[in-house]
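STRUCTURE:
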């Protein structure tokens, strides 16, 4: 065969092979690639979804929408008015959103929200999207994101005012319902879009999926406004998760008229979790985690931890309760009490999980107790007791709100000892650590006697039904008894009222520090200044109290929890099972264990600060669910 003949044969074979390749066929690709192609949409990429591209291809508008989006959208809009169905409305929502995002056009974001709303909520007798149609969730997200983008100005501010807004589809007649801007005794303002915030420092970011553009708001005081529950303030710098819903009256008919009457409603999580739209019950969307993280970022509570230990008068407003949200009758209070050299901020992980749990949300409310953690434990416990009593009275009492009669107190470390003091009957056992003489025989100032009555003698609070002890040193901490504990105790400075009480007791021959008399110091003699100076160094700190050899530690460990209260223990240890003979770096297992606990959960391979550990949080959740269900 000559060379020319060979070339001819090869050419013929090539033509034959080409003729065998069909115009339509398949080729293998990865399952992931196929899935991404089928599920991509305008929110995840800069391209419309497969379903919207199908509409554009059927109507011959693909190239026009790509090359000249505004004329392409106008043509698609006109064709939709001729035959208005869900496919075309969804395509208009996607292509409008893509164009709006590219050119930052508020008008096209508004248009995208109208098309999405008309797709989701037909009022002309058309069928709503099938629940299994993936476009249903995408349509909700398009609406939510379009509303959020339309509300935020170029400077990043949310400007809210009623007005007529002319745009390419006609005129938007916007009204605003002012009722939603009220939050307890405050007014919501300074809105920030949750879609623009990235959360750090928390394991999980929770969003309650639904309808509405999620924002975060500041609750600002209203001048002259009433303050319900003023003795239980809402935390400073708290941020409120809210959502905006723009309701269009019969959006499909409005598209034909070119006139769009709409009402902008604002909802907070406390006000509503679902609403009625076009005769359907629809959940609302909120960003709870981003609101929590945003509030903690601007809070000064992080700096309180060390200061709160060193200075007994470190709280300018005094020790006491505060809430994350206004009180709602019917919700069981869960009171969180932090530990030594700590602050309520250390409950962030637990709070994030509990507030976002669908089985707990709406059934409990979180209260915090903040206190100067260096002060003597009985003194802090007395402040907790008075705060809880005042709170229940302020909220109308347990007869008015029976949920207040089911209070749960959860304490970490020293906070667990404060919690235990609320559910024990001490008699005069703590007083006998100070003196063998009855307190009624002593010549004391009225303010001293009043403080001692509150801080020495405890009876169970009748409305506390359950306590949870986390890393609690019922029999003291081995760290408190070594050089580190003594060093920490030396740094503590007692508040003025305790100094005065100490001096008054010294005049009666009683030392509040057991080691003072053993050292041979006669506190009942000498001039007043020298006695005060000696007492300043000897008002016991909480670390002194947690020394296993301290009389307080021995006494409180000998007093059982009241039989009418259900107690639970969560005990971390640094190693694996069994827990006996181990510790968490601060508290030995044997100190944290109590026989009367209805349940004991050991968190293995965990340190003392276990309140953020996933297993600890899950156990707290289990306990709360059992409590709400009425189980032991």
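SEQUENCE:
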């Amino acid at each position: 065969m000559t060379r020319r003949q060979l070339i001819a044969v090869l050419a013929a074979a090539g033509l034959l092979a080409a003729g065998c390749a069909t115009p339509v066929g398949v080729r293998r690709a990865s399952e992931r690639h196929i899935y991404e192609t089928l599920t991509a949409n305008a929110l995840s990429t800069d391209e419309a979804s497969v379903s919207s591209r199908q509409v554009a291809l059927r109507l011959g508008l693909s190239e026009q929408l790509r090359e000249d989006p505004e004329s392409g959208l106008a043509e698609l809009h006109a064709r939709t008015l001729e035959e208005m169905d869900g496919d075309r409305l969804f395509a208009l929502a996607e292509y409008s959103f893509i164009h709006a995002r590219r050119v930052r056009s508020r008008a096209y974001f508004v248009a995208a929200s109208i098309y999405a709303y008309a797709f989701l909520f037909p009022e002309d007798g058309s069928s709503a999207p099938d629940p299994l149609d993936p476009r249903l969730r995408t349509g909700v997200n398009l609406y939510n994101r379009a509303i959020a983008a339309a509300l935020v100005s170029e400077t990043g501010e949310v400007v809210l005012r009623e007005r007529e807004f002319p745009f390419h589809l006609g005129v938007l007649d916007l009204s605003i319902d002012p009722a939603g801007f009220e939050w307890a005794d405050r007014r919501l303002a300074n809105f920030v879009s949750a879609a623009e915030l990235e959360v750090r420092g928390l394991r999980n970011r929770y969003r309650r999926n639904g309808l509405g553009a999620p924002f975060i708001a500041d609750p600002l005081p209203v001048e002259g406004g009433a303050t319900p529950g003023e003795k239980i303030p809402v935390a400073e710098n708290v941020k409120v998760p809210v959502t905006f819903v723009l309701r269009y009256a019969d959006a499909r008919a409005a598209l034909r008229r070119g006139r769009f009457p709409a009402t902008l409603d604002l909802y907070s999580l406390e006000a509503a979790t679902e609403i009625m739209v076009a005769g359907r019950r629809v959940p609302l969307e909120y960003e709870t985690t981003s609101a929590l993280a945003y509030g903690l970022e601007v809070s000064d509570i992080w700096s309180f931890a060390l200061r709160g230990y060193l200075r007994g008068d470190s709280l300018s407003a005094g020790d006491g309760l505060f809430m994350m949200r206004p009180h709602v009758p019917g919700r069981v209070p869960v009171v969180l009490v932090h530990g030594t050299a700590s602050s309520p901020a250390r409950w962030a992980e637990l709070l994030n999980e509990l507030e976002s749990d669908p089985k707990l949300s709406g059934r409990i409310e979180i209260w915090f107790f903040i206190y100067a953690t260096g002060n003597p434990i009985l003194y802090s416990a007395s402040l907790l007791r008075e705060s809880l009593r005042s709170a229940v009275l302020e909220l109308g009492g347990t007869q008015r709100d029976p949920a207040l009669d089911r209070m749960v107190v959860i304490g970490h470390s020293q906070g667990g000892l404060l919690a235990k003091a609320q559910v024990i009957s001490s008699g005069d056992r703590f007083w006998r650590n100070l003196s063998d003489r009855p307190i009624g025989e002593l010549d004391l100032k009225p303010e001293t006697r009043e403080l001692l009555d509150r801080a020495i003698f405890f009876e169970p609070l009748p409305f506390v039904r359950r306590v949870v002890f986390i890393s609690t040193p019922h029999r003291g901490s081995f760290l408190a008894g070594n050089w580190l504990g003594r060093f920490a105790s030396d740094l503590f400075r007692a508040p003025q009222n305790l100094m005065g009480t100490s001096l008054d007791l010294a005049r009666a021959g009683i030392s509040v520090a057991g080691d003072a008399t053993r050292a041979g110091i006669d506190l009942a003699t000498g001039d007043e200044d020298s006695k005060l100076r000696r007492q300043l160094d000897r008002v016991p700190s909480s670390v002194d109290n947690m020394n296993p050899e301290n009389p307080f530690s021995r006494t409180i460990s000998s007093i059982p929890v009241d039989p009418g209260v259900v107690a639970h223990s969560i005990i971390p240890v640094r190693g694996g099972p069994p827990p006996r003979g181990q510790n968490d770096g601060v508290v030995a297992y044997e100190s944290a264990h109590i026989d009367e606990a209805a349940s004991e959960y050991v968190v293995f391979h965990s340190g003392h600060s276990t309140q953020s550990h996933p297993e600890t949080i899950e156990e707290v959740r289990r306990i709360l669910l059992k409590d709400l269900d009425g189980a032991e």
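REMARK: The mean pLDDT is 88.
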